[in-house]
Amino acid sequence: MFRSMTLGLLGACVVLLARLPLGRPVLVTPRPLVVSAAPPADESSPPSIQIVDVGPGAGDVVGLIRLAPDEQVVAIDDRAVPSTLVAGAVIAAHPRRPGAFLDLTVASAVASRRVLVLLH
Question: How many CA atoms lie within 13 A of 64 on its CB side?
Fold first, then answer.
């Protein structure tokens, strides 16, 4: 009984190995990695994106957002705001709960940038 079971299992293994598709080995040559350096940033220009992380104990969110004298918030969460006063009111009224954030578009006469405000 043991001998016939062993021969049956051995025969099944031989059949499975015979039906196994044989792959051809392929030589893969890695492509050279090309790294291009970014141009040096101008120290006078602000970064194109800024992240402001507001903790639960921080009081005024509007005071934490740094703007240059000629900049103003033109959109909040990709919705245009008509004035700086309206933008400040919308930012101050935004609910502060874990996972909440504000996506601000700040523009000047020369350029625009994004400010992401993370609220905890």
Answer: 20
